[in-house]
Structures are given as structure tokens and as C-alpha cells.
Amino acid sequence: MLRSTEPGLQLHHVTRRYGSIVAVNDISLEVSQGEFLVIVGPSGCGKTTLLRLVAGLDVQDEGSITIQNRIVSGNGVFVPPEKRRVGLVFQDYALFPHMTIAKNVAFGLHRWSKADVRQRVYEMLDMVQLAHLADRYPHELSGGERQRVALARALAPRPDILLLDEPFSNLDAGLRTTMREHIQRLLKGINITTFFVTHDQEEALLLGDRVAVMNQGQIEQVGTPEQVFHQPATYFVAEFFGYTAFISGHVTSAGLETELGFLSQRLSLAPGSEVNILVRPDDLSVYPDEEGTAYIVRAGFQGMHCMYQIALPSGHTVYSLMPHTSVYAPGTRVRVELRPGHDLVCFPNNRSMSAKGSRIADHHFVY
Ligand code: ADP
Ligand code: MG
């Protein structure tokens, strides 16, 4: 992927408090020029606050923010939003209702000549494939079209960074998929540094060059989509990416004895150590078996696959994705086979599982 190692955006120990709430808690982060970084986390974790600080719509209590090696906030400096060279796209489009589409896109082009504005507006509308709607008003457009106008408007002044806050949340599922593909192609083409905020884990994994997983004002992990999915650093990150289950196991000199059988996987922990092992639906197979000690709790038919929720004798719940046409009914006794085909992520079990979801240093995963 085309990406410079020059930083496009740097956050140094940025904290923002609202009274007793720490909305952004000591975040340090670097985004390379041309990189597409996704900030993902549940509602209320501080994503919008972080984006507003970068945009200059809000000011942090501590720390500093640098865009293209220029301090824009902190250390006694504050560059106002219109001078930061950032493009903004919000969930609600925020178009000017009384202006045509062309006027909306031209909005940020101050001090450009009339001819340049005209050319840039049509270039941008061409890019989002809306040139034929230039003279319409926002209320005459669909949601997807409005969001493409918002994108064209944000990119028109050639910003250094594009900031997007849940830009597709107001679109229906089908349109959201189309828009994701569209934006990915478009932004790769112009190689702009992108800071994209979403609560949607699928969107994050799909779009991000890297993904930063945020929880309660902090970044729990930053990594490629593969890293945050397959090597989650914390319970929170593991559980955030869906259909995650844990089974118990303990370390032996030969490998890992689990409640679903032996794995030859070696860990850097002493024999006898207890671990919680992360299993995802593709790590397990399930077969009807009258002698089985587990049973189907729920069967979700998904067309080509069926997603089973399975209760184990230990009381743990696991998920299994099975490709077949016959669906086993809830209550069916089953045998569960653990055949991951890769090392599983293990967390030392030196506290109770009730600590999951919290950020606890000694709950970080081990190999
Ligand atoms: P997200 O975008 O991840 O949903 P926000 O950044 O909007 O989260 O909010 C983070 C936390 O900060 C929440 O607890 C929210 O209630 C609080 N918060 C955000 N903005 C303000 C504000 N202007 N005044 C007081 N509290 C705020
Ligand atoms: Mg938000």
C-alpha cells in the first residue's frame, strides 16, 4: 500500500475531561501520511471527542496535536479549525439546505478564482459521480448522494487530513456497503491521511490500514485489522470483534490441556498455569452425538452456513460456524471438536473471568 512514513497526524498524551468524565484519557497516536486509520469503539467511549480535538472544534486539557509536523493545539498554540487544513464529514451530512450541491462543494474554496472554483467543484462532483446533480438542493438527494456531496465538499480545498465521524450510520445496510467500497477506492486514489471514526467493528476491519480500538477514553490496541482480530491485546479487544468465546485450559509440559481436549500449542507460561483460551466460530466443529456432553442452545441459519451457540458442561458458551444444509435443533446433544489449525490466543487466568472487559495489565495475552 502506498504510504509514507512521515507522520500526517500525531497525538501526544491528549486528555479531555468534562467535569468528572474523562472522555479522552492520555491518548498518544501517530497516523502516517496517506494512511487510513479507523478509531473504533462502543458508543460513549470518546471517539467524537477525539475527532473534535483534532478538528479544533474542542480543546484538550492536556497534551498536544500535530498535523503534518505543525503543532495545531497544545504547548500554548491553538490553530482554529478553518486554518488546520482538515476536511470534515459527519453522520448527518451537515449540508447547507439553501445552497445547491455545487455551492455546497464550493463553500470551503475561499480566495480561489471563479474559474478555479468552477473547475474544482466539477472535478469533485465527477469524483463522487454526482456532476449531473450540481444544480439540485440537498433535500432533492438521497442519503447516499448527500453523503457523497459532503465528502466532495470536505475534499475540495485539498485538506491535509480527512476526518469522518460515523459517516455511514444514517444509511441503510445495502447503501452502507456500497459507500464503504466507494470511499475506499476513492481515498486510496488520492492518498490522503484519513481519520475515520465508527462503532461498527465490521466497517473498521474492512476499511482500516490500521485500527485503533478505543474503550473508556483510552486506546486498548492499535494494529492492522488482522492483528486486532487475531491477536487481541486485551479481553475488551477480543470481545469487541464478535462471536468470541473463552474456554478454560491449563499449561502442561507438552502443550495445553483444555476442556475440549489437548492442543500441542506451547506457551511461555509455567506448567500448571491456568489460562482462558479465545475460541472463535471457525475454530470449532460440532456434530450431533447422543453421548455428547454439550448441547445446542441456538441455531442461526445464515444461508450457506449455520451459526450455533453451544453450551459446554463447564457452563461456558462457545460458537461454531458449520457449512451444511441440515440444521441441528436447539437441545440437540453434540460433540464439540477443537481443531483451530493455528495457535489460539490465551490470557493468563490469574483473576476471575468477571474481570473481562476491563483493562488489566496482567490479563494481556501470552504466546
Ligand atoms: P462517542 O463518540 O464514542 O460515542 P463521545 O466522544 O461523544 O463518545 O463522548 C465521550 C464521553 O464524553 C461520554 O461520556 C459523553 O457523555 C461525554 N461528553 C461528550 N461531550 C460532552 C460535553 N460537551 N459535555 C459533557 N460531556 C460530554
Ligand atoms: Mg460519536
Beta fraction: 25-35%
Instruction: Give me the Rg, rounded.
Output: 24 Å
Q: Pairing-aware structural class of the strands and helices? A: alpha+beta
The CA-CA distance between the termini, in Å, is 29 Å
Tally of strands: 21
Morphology call: globular
- Runs in which pLDDT lies below 50 for 5 or more consecutive residues are 352-363
- Please describe the biggest sheet, giving its number of strands, its sense, and whether it closes into a barrel: 6 strands, mixed
Give the SSE order as H and E letters: EEEHEEEEHHHEHEHEEHHEEEEEEEEEE
Mean pLDDT: 91
How many alpha or pi helices? Answer: 8
Helical content band = 10-25%
- Ions, cofactors and other bound molecules: adenosine-5'-diphosphate, magnesium ion
Strand order of the largest sheet: 7-8-9-3-10-11
Task: Tell me about this structure.
With 367 residues, the chain is α+β, with helices and mostly antiparallel strands. Helix content is 22%, strand content 34%. The protein has eight helices and 21 strands. The strands form four sheets. The chain has a six-stranded mixed beta sheet with strand order 7-8-9-3-10-11, sandwiched between helices. A five-stranded antiparallel beta sheet has the order 2-1-4-5-6, with helices on one face. The longest helix has 18 residues. The protein is globular, with a radius of gyration of 24 Å. About 3% of the residues have low confidence. Magnesium ion binds next to helix 1.
